[in-house]
From TrEMBL:
It comes from Clunio marinus. Keywords: Membrane, Signal, Transmembrane, Transmembrane helix. Residues 1-23 form the signal peptide. This is CLUMA_CG000017, isoform A. Residues 273-285 have a biased composition (Polar residues).
């Protein structure tokens, strides 16, 4: 019992410390019906935290993805908007914004909030997230992919002991990261969340400047692409030649066969005709045959010559 009583002051001090720490940092209020003073307190605390974070996350630029600046920014804007929708309990016809904003020509609060907003939108920070106003972090899938891929590349580079092996060992990780980045760039119309843009810029600079990967790689890549193109062109030409020739030959064969068939049929008809026309006079027949012989002699060069050669004539006479 005495022991428990002794620990009470200690617990009290811890409790007070936690409460003080919590209230001095930017956080949302659990109270549903917050008055103007409460809302304004959150706005100025969170905006101060955001600006402080912006100073420390400027280079390397991590303003958008940093936990504290993200939360501070989203809470600032959420409660700043509430100033324009919450009524002053002392004067129901007035809004909280009437009490705090535009009191004189300096418009200090509007101007400072405007600065934060400008910083956030110029950096395209919302592009990193799925929602435009939620105060809980929800990265887009492509942001997650990019950050994971960058982590893999960083791990890979950290593991390599000799810097001259980085290009070889981590090339695939680098190309994957590059691919994801280019896809984000295209799909967002070049409005890339600046955290990613800055990370990619530094990664590319290190890749060519520190690890000296790009120059040789590009040369060999160019050689590879030109070789691949040449092979591709040759293959395409070869296959198109094979295709056209291959597709023409069977057609021509079919035609040839058809022509041959037609020719044979007409030959058969021609040779059958003299026999069929039995009422043809012998004079006509002799005439026809002599005509045929003369055309044969005119048209063909070799056979009639052989037939009319002296040797053949001698042989005929012997018969
Ligand atoms: C209440 O607010 C309105 C609008 O800002 C203002 O015109 C009016 O004078 C205020 N009334 C009092 C009693 O402060
Ligand atoms: C994050 O956003 C996606 C898409 O808008 C949604 O499906 C998911 O539930 C969200 N996750 C959280 C934790 O809010
Ligand atoms: C790294 O590797 C290169 C090539 O094999 C070698 O010339 C160089 O001495 C190595 N450097 C270190 C620090 O081991
Ligand atoms: C990328 O880095 C270079 C060198 O530091 C810098 O001059 C350039 O502005 C950077 N590009 C972007 C888009 O930040």
């Amino acid at each position: 019992m005495v022991y428990y009583l002794q620990t009470l002051p200690v617990l009290f001090i811890i409790g007070v410390t936690i409460r003080l720490t919590k209230s001095s940092f930017c956080h949302e209020s659990e109270e549903v019906k917050l008055n103007c003073v409460g809302i304004f307190e959150i706005v100025h605390k969170c905006n101060a935290e955001f600006i402080q974070n912006a100073m420390t996350t400027a280079d390397p630029f991590t303003l958008c993805t940093n936990d504290f600046s993200f939360r501070a920014y989203r809470i600032t804007m959420k409660y700043y908007d509430r100033l324009f929708s919450t009524h002053d309990p002392k004067n129901e016809s007035a809004l909280c914004s009437d009490q705090y904003l535009n009191k004189n020509k300096m418009n200090v609060i509007t101007s400072l909030i405007g600065n934060s907003k400008n910083l956030w939108t110029t950096a395209n920070c919302d592009q990193c997230y799925n929602t435009l106003s939620s105060t809980s972090k929800n990265f887009t899938t492509s942001t997650e992919d990019f950050l994971n891929s960058l982590q893999l590349l960083t791990n890979c580079i950290d593991k390599v002991t000799n810097i001259s092996f980085v290009c070889n060992k981590c090339e695939t990780h680098y190309q994957t990261l590059n691919g994801i980045y280019e896809r984000i760039k295209t799909s967002s119309n070049n409005k890339i969340c600046f955290d990613l843009e800055d990370k990619m810029n530094k990664t590319r600079r290190d890749w060519s400047g520190v690890y000296k990967c790009c120059r040789d790689k590009r040369d060999s890549l160019t050689a590879f692409y030109s070789l691949a193109t040449t092979i591709f062109i040759i293959a395409v030409s070869f296959y198109s030649v094979v295709y056209f020739v291959g597709s023409n030959y069977p057609e021509r064969n079919v035609l040839d066969e058809r022509e041959v068939a037609i020719c044979r049929r007409s030959e058969i008809r021609d040779s059958a005709q003299p026999g069929q026309s039995s009422n043809m006079s012998s004079f006509d027949r002799n005439n026809l045959e002599s005509q045929k012989k003369s055309t044969e002699q005119d048209n063909s060069d070799n056979e009639p010559l052989i037939l009319s050669s002296p040797l053949n004539q001698a042989l005929e006479r012997l018969n």
